UniProtKB/TrEMBL annotation:
Domain DUF7907: 25-150
Protein name, entry field: DUF7907 domain-containing protein
Signal peptide: 1-15
Organism: Eeniella nana (Yeast)
Keyword Signal on entry: yes
Pfam families linked to this entry: DUF7907
Amino acid sequence: MQFKNLIILSAAVSAETVQLSTMSSKEDVNGKGISSLHEGAGINYAFLSSGSDTLDYDESTKFLSVSYDTYSEYFTIDSGFVGVSVSPAPVEVTFDKDNNLLVDGSSEGFYGCKNTNDPYDNSESSYELMYYSGNSTAPDGCLPLTVVKVSGAGNKTDTGTKTTTSTGTETTSSTVSCTETKCQPQTTAYLTTFTGGAEKFGSAGILALGAGAFAALL
């Protein structure tokens, strides 16, 4: 039985690596980095600091995130608290031509606040990044600011492919797409045809084989 393997590789897509900073007319919260501090299980609230966390920005989903081995944490806003957490649902953000971060199309609503009653009381000594918009009003003492994308590693992606094809019952193929910070399998679709396959498996069997090979890579 002779196998012929056709491999279709989708275009590799990499997230843009970004860091965030602040811009404000208030000196205490101007030109600060933004980093997240652990405040509970799967919860990391954003604080103004001397350095900035590195995040991945996916332009297709409009999500900012940090990925780990088994899960990802996303840029979130919950009752005014800005964080990089596993919940609630991620907030869609965009950037304007000046690299200002926009929520619902606006850069307004971000503040640096102290004494926010955060779980670990980090805001007693540091400004916490908060968000108030619409009918919500920032408490007294909060200083308005704009969140700005200041740097990133860009969209560099390296792709390598190793494919082994044999005549028989097994074929192995793997494709890996890597950014500067992580690697992940690239989407690969298999279409397998073979002489005599219709007689043994029928047309439905051939489709099932193709679907199984594709699912094995997911």
